[in-house]
Amino acid sequence: RPFAFTEGYLDAHAHLVAGPRAGALRALADLKGRTVAVARGTTYEQWAHANGPRYAFRVEAVSDDAAAIALVTAGRADAALTAHTAVAYAVMRHAGKARLVAAKVDEGRVFALAFRKTDTALRDAADEALECLKQDGTLARLHEKWFG
Fold first, then answer.
1. Cβ(139)–Cβ(112) under 8 Å?
2. pTM of the entire structure?
3. What distances in angstroms separate CA 136 from CA 5, 11, 144, 147, one per listed residue?
4. Is the pLDDT of residue 6 over 90?
């Protein structure tokens, strides 16, 4: 790999955000016969195409997360699948038109900062800063502020 990464600072699992037409959507198995919107070219689109047949849902790939969530809030898709941070923000922003679904897709990915392999000193400094933000609770407070 041409990069050196910091420690992870945020889980990168995906969640479903459901809209008004989704009814009792609570789990991945409840997607049968439904439409799931995803951002084109993302790992979420890859997962949806790979697992759509298993759960019997249709995939609607659109330009980006905002467009996928807009399909949900407009009632043109039952759910959108994307990063839990985008889902949490959408639920806060679209109160009453979007809700978090308990189902989550966790493939063990985390967000981290990337640096050139040769920038180990800078990467180490960022790692130390992240560790301080975690220990003093700042990272948790930022997550609560922006994602609920």
1. no
2. 0.76
3. 22, 19, 14, 19
4. yes
